[in-house]
Amino acid sequence: MILFRTLILTMIVSIFSLGTALAQDAGDAPVSSQDILKTVSQARGKVVVINFWASWCGPCRQEIPELIALRKRFPEDKLLLLGVSVDQEQAMYAMYKARAGFNYPVMRAKPDVSQAFSIRAIPRTVVYSPKGEVVYSEEGYMAGEDLERMIKKLIGA
User: Fold this and answer.
1) Is the confidence at residue 30, as pLDDT, over 70?
2) Counting Cβ atoms within 10 Å, is residue 148 exposed (0-12), middle (13-18) or buried (19+)?
3) Residue pLDDT, tens place only, 84-121
4) CA angle 149, 152, 157 (to 5 degrees)
5) In angstroms, how far is CA 136 from the centroid of its own chain?
6) Eight-state DSSP code of residue 38
7) Could you tell me whether strands 47-53 and 79-85 are parallel, antiparallel, or unpaired per DSSP bridges?
8) pTM of the predicted model, to two decimals?
9) I need a surface site. Which of 46, 97, 134, 148 has the fewest CB within 10 A?
10) 94 vs 92: CA distance, rounded Å
11) In whole angstroms, what is the distance from residue 98 CA to residue 39 CA?
12) What count of other Cβ atoms lies within 10 Å of the Cβ of residue 138?
């Protein structure tokens, strides 16, 4: 009887763990431009930095460690940093995401995001002021120290 209860308990824990893993995978569902803009509007009072990237992009891979370091230097009530991958292949995105050690939210973009944010090349960085206004939107590598100066100016530090 004890063996039977242990077996049942083990099965329940396994099923719960599987369900949790699937729920986490569902969190990697691609986001639309409207999803991103909603997140920005809900972050009023914070500087919002959106970094559009892809796993295969060399300059993107150069920026990401700098963004990870930057995330550590600002409190979450002052800065929302979002990574939005334009990878078309889920497997490449997932593999890079697992290796990179992101400490900020990262998501994959739906096809409408490129047009909505005028993405013609990556990386692309878009910065919103605490009032929700776009204050910077450029393609190409941006040095972490340049972005840090901009954020400090916007939060008044």
Assistant:
1) yes
2) middle
3) 999 999 999 999 999 999 999 999 999 999 999 999 99
4) 135
5) 18
6) H
7) parallel
8) 0.80
9) 134
10) 6
11) 23
12) 12
pLDDT for 139: 96
Contact 83, 106 (CB under 8 A): yes
| Cα–Cα distance measured from residue 109 to residue 33, given in angstroms and rounded to the nearest whole number | 8
Distance CA 76, CA 40 (A): 14
Q: Write the CA distances from 42 to 27, 28, 87, 130, 157, integer angstroms.
A: 19, 20, 26, 11, 22
Tokens of 16: 């719960």
Q: In angstroms, what is the C-alpha Rg of the chain?
A: 19
- Asked, as a colleague might, if the bond just before 111 is cis with ω within 30 of 0, I would say no
Q: Which two tokens stand for residue 134?
A: 């776009």
Asked if residue 87 lies in contact with residue 55, where contact means CB atoms within 8 angstroms, the answer is yes
**Which amino acid is present at 132?**
G
Strand partners, 52: 84, 124
Rounded CA separation 118/33 (Å): 11
Q: Look up tokens 């991958």; give the residue.
A: 85
Inter-residue contact 36 to 82 (CB < 8 Å): yes
